[in-house]
Amino acid sequence: MPEELFPGLFREKIPLPNNPLRAVNSYVVKGDGRFLVVDTALNCPECLAAMKAYLTGLGVDLDRTDFFITHYHVDHLGLVSELRGKTSKVYLGRPDDERLRNPDYWKELENAARCNGFPETLLPSVLGNHPARHYQTRLDFQATHMREGDAVAIGEYSFRCVETPGHTPGHHCLYEPNKKILFAGDHILNGISPNISMWGRADDALRSYSGSLDKIYSYDISLVLPGHREPFADHARRINELKEHHEARNGEIISLVEKGRRSAYQAASLMTWGISCKRWEDFPLSQQWFACGEALAHLRYLEGKGRVKKELENGKAVFCLK
Ligand SMILES: [Zn+2]
Question: Residue 118: pLDDT above 90?
């Protein structure tokens, strides 16, 4: 059953089949004759049925509905093409939209993985089974790109777009200054730490993320409405915890690199992860993928800080202390 969190603002947890995140939060805001949906779910029959039941139950007319997508990951964007109506706007950050439509996207990921030590023999499986291959939206719509401060008005709510690059390069939150609520996407989550991954990215993802955490810290927020898990108050406490988490990770990476030159894949295999597998070899491949992307984000960040340096050995990147 959808939960009415504020007048005319609803949340439903849409189950994500076979996904460790278990569910994504999709929000609906009802206005005068128009509706806003914040984030959808995977493009698969189970999620589509759950979304349709949710939207129909609330009396949402999809022909009068706009979609605000916090970022392009499949669990948020996947169903937008299925659900959108004739007049629907789809709000999506420009950098994410460009990644989505980049014809070389998978090739670039593959090259980045190869360069950072991901074993050649595992690449076809990890890339072939990547959820984004199977659950992404059809690209038969044109996105409306939002910028910092852009207004999204619906009923009694006057939202403002907030650029929060980090989890993805084009991640956006939506803030309502009167009600002091923040649709946070995967920028700040409670109980789990958003994955900050570097695959195929030119920016310093962790530096961007850290800047976006600092930015949101100063906002006046009574309730954070996240992409996963439960809404929560006290965003400043959570931001401090996330920053401490990443600092501890940086320390762990430094101590690994101190002992010898490592590729991102080797560093990931030696780090501690909250997964119930004793040996790295037993990690599900998708988890190796996320872990390696995260190790790389830390190495890139530390490189930017002048703490480690990257060297190329036969076309492969290895990192050592500077
Ligand atoms: Zn997500």
Answer: yes
